[in-house]
């Protein structure tokens, strides 16, 4: 787990830094519970050391729905129990966990669901991983169902599989909730912002449409998105990105890549 106290108090001893981190977490989560809206995300929360930290935070009264733990692979059952009891939110990064091999390398969806946590989904790092939620949904759906079937192979038990409805929920409503935006976005509900994608159901890779949710999760990808609305304002329409000079952006991206490749630190 990343020692985020290091960024805030680099001149303090390690123990004091950890105490400062706990104090900051406690202050922010209390502020969040009071309606101010502060939230804390802890990246790279996995393995034994993170499990121990989670239990310390639970004992200190820090864990709450205002705290999001990202990845959460390889955590102990005791840590998961504390997270479930406090309503701590979890952001899974399915392709990152599996491809990079973070701790167990298995997205911890079963562990989350077993303690009543419906996780959100995360991409993690776009420079090395697919940057769309279609890929994250499909990866998690496949990995969990493989794991469920493997767990009961050779027995008369039925596997406990998640569904396409589950992963779409993780990518939308639960993703918004995990980021503290459940009252703002994540679903088409009166009073929320009109944030939505329009997916072409009759594109070659999607037709014929039978189950809309199954089509979105199992067949669709970014090329099928014909329109994007953010707070009701079109940002992509008829397959074209609006208000962005793509040629200029492409030039900036290439220049940035060349700078990184050609710059040495000595």
Automatic annotation (TrEMBL):
Keywords in alphabetical order: Hydrolase, Metal-binding, Zinc
Cofactor: Zn(2+)
InterPro entries: Amidohydro-rel (IPR006680), Metal-dep_hydrolase_composite (IPR011059), Metal_Hydrolase (IPR032466), Metallo-dep_hydrolases (IPR051607)
Pfam families: Amidohydro_1
Residue ranges occupied by any Amidohydrolase-related domain in the UniProt entry: 53-233
Record-linked PANTHER family: FAMILY PROTEIN, PUTATIVE (AFU_ORTHOLOGUE AFUA_4G00460)-RELATED, GUANINE DEAMINASE
Protein name: Amidohydrolase family protein
């Amino acid at each position: 787990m990343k020692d985020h106290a290091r960024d805030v108090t680099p001149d303090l001893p390690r123990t004091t830094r950890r105490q400062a981190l706990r104090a900051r977490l406690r202050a922010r989560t209390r502020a969040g519970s009071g309606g101010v809206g502060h939230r804390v995300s802890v990246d790279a929360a996995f393995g034994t050391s993170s499990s121990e930290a989670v239990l310390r935070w639970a004992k200190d009264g820090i864990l709450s729905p205002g705290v999001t733990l990202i990845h959460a692979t390889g955590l102990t059952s005791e840590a998961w129990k504390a997270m479930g009891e406090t309503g701590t939110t979890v952001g899974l990064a399915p392709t990152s966990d599996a491809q990079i091999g973070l701790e167990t390398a298995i997205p911890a969806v079963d562990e989350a669901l077993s303690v009543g946590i419906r996780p959100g989904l995360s991409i993690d790092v776009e420079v090395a991983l697919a940057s769309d939620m279609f890929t994250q949904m499909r990866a998690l759906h496949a990995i969990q169902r493989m794991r469920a079937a493997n767990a009961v192979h050779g027995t008369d038990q039925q596997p406990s599989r998640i569904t396409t409805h589950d992963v779409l929920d993780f990518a939308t409503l639960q993703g918004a909730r995990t980021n503290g935006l459940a009252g703002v976005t994540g679903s088409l509900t009166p009073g929320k912002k009109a944030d939505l994608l329009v997916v072409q159901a009759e594109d070659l890779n999607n037709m014929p449409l039978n189950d809309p949710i199954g089509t979105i999760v199992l067949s669709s990808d970014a090329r099928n998105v014909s329109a994007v609305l953010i707070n009701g304002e079109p940002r992509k329409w008829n397959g074209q990105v609006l208000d962005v000079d793509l040629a200029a952006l492409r030039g900036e991206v290439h220049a940035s890549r060349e700078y990184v490749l050609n710059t040495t630190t000595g």
